[in-house]
Amino acid sequence: MAPETYRVEIAGVSKSFRAVQALKDVSLNVRPGEIHALVGENGAGKSTLMNILSGVLRKDSGTIRMDGSAVEIPDPRAGRQLGIGIIHQELALVPSLTVAENIFISRLSRRFGLVDWRGLNRRAGELLARTGFPEIDPRATVASLGVAYRQIVEIAKGLSENVRVLILDEPTSVLAPQEVESLFAALRILREQGVGLVYISHRLDEIFRIADRITVLKDGAVVRTVLPSEITPGDLIGLMIGRTLTAMFPSRGSRAGVEVLRVDALSRGGKVRDVSFVVRAGEIVGIAGLVGSGRTEILRTIFGADPKDSGTISVGGRRLRIHSPRDAVRNGIALVPESRKDHGVILSMSIRKNITLPSVGRMAGALGIIRQRKERSVAQTLAGRLRIKARNIDAEVADLSGGNQQKVVLAKWLGTDCRVLLLDEPTRGVDVGAKAELYSLIADLAGAGMAIVMVSSEMMEMIGLCDRVAVVSQGRIAGVLEGAAITEENIMRLAVRRSGCGGGG
Ligand SMILES: Nc1ncnc2c1ncn2[C@@H]1O[C@H](COP(=O)(O)OP(=O)(O)OP(=O)(O)O)[C@@H](O)[C@H]1O
Ligand SMILES: [Mg+2]
Predict the structure, then answer these.
(1) Is the CB of residue 217 less than 8 Å from the CB of residue 39?
(2) What is the largest CA-CA distance in the chain?
(3) Which listed CATH number (3.30.1360.120, 3.90.79.10, 3.40.50.300, 3.40.50.920) goes with 8-241?
(4) In this structure, which ligand is nearest to the CA of 49?
(5) Residue 408: in which H helix or E strand, if any?
(6) What is the pTM for the complete model shown?
(7) Residue 93's pLDDT is what?
(8) What residues sit around ligand 2, an ion, with C-beta below 5 angstroms?
(9) CATH: 1.10.8.60, 3.30.230.10, 3.40.50.10490, 3.40.50.300. Which one for 245-332+418-505?
(10) Ligand 1 atom 7, closest CA
(11) Residues 243-301: pLDDT tens digits?
């Protein structure tokens, strides 16, 4: 029998960034019409490997073959010409441009003279139809679309006319369950069309649902390629992190104490409408809802990042005047934001500086030297607990993998003394091992008397960690679930409820 011809065959690829060897002799193949999942801890080398395949980075050694012939991919343009599309970990659309302009942006910017807009819109329409979403208008601005549709536009952008390979680097990290379904429908259509797909995700439940094969990377090397049917999620985690996780979620004695945070009739624009809830010391309260339902806005308004129109916020029974995040921090409220790039970390600074930034006041000693030593030990402890993968804590955040940057944001705020901790998608992009560690850290903080509010799209987090879950729909709390009533079904039922109709029903 002749050897199988693969869509993509990566053989013996290595890559180093100065002292860091990100990939060691990696071999991997993708068949046409296959969804091949690539999994591994933060910093395992997943993005690096796919950036090499798409021409964003250059390999140090090794070969890449496509449909049997050896290829060189020195830049992204060469990758596109070979039919390799990539959707990066961070969305890269320009909101003020239209859908069609975004899809063809790399080709538009190099061209002078007249653009055939009608032709452009028609071709964009054809690519959108290929993804199974013909309802997206190529002439609409990207800003007018929800996150799920933006993701589809990214896919259409990745689909050049002759796409043979499509790489998706954590496409669902911002999506709610229903939106994940739409994305999967699009991926299945592409698979039927013979496209070879590489799918990177930290959400293992998704991997088991969509992947035909799974390759595990660890510390830059391939551990194994397996079929989903021949491995359990627990064993897959074992391959990824090199140890077994006994429990994903910590067991917590729920000893709710005195009232800490009280939010009363909070409103802002059309996004936050008459929101009221209470969090006691030691409690973890979840805020669930679809993308765009107003979850992030609720946290931002409490924190003073967005001004409120009406309503009150009290901490420890005292009504607060919060006009800015500084007011919030001064009153013991901390917010870990959703997007690390916008306001999470300073990429050009070291891990240590980033972690200790919010707490410098606390560490100020009589002698600068004492402060420095304390800074180091706090940063070291948190970096170790969250398993931040880096040379050492003086490494620049810009050089870390996506998930490790997220861990720095978390460490930064977990290191502060606050009474109220607001967490927005805290585990987004974080690998399973670190997730478990983070859950126990959050539980410890609650155990120490903090009041915690957590927004998350991951159902298991809501169910496994929260004492109560407020489900938001169109800016309003559609219902609050407690204890055994916190189920995926109940959360979804409330999340899709439209406010305004049905009144009390
Ligand atoms: N530009 C760079 N300079 C220096 N080191 C880098 C650079 N890009 C990546 N690295 C390092 O290479 C290793 C692999 O990073 P990569 O981004 O491929 O990980 P990943 O598997 O995609 O992780 P994540 O799940 O967090 O996205 C990490 O140790 C990272 O710090
Ligand atoms: Mg990555």
Answers:
(1) yes
(2) 78
(3) 3.40.50.300
(4) 1
(5) helix 402-414
(6) 0.80
(7) 84
(8) 47, 402
(9) 3.40.50.300
(10) 399
(11) 777 778 888 876 778 999 999 999 999 899 999 999 999 999 999 988 778 999 999 99
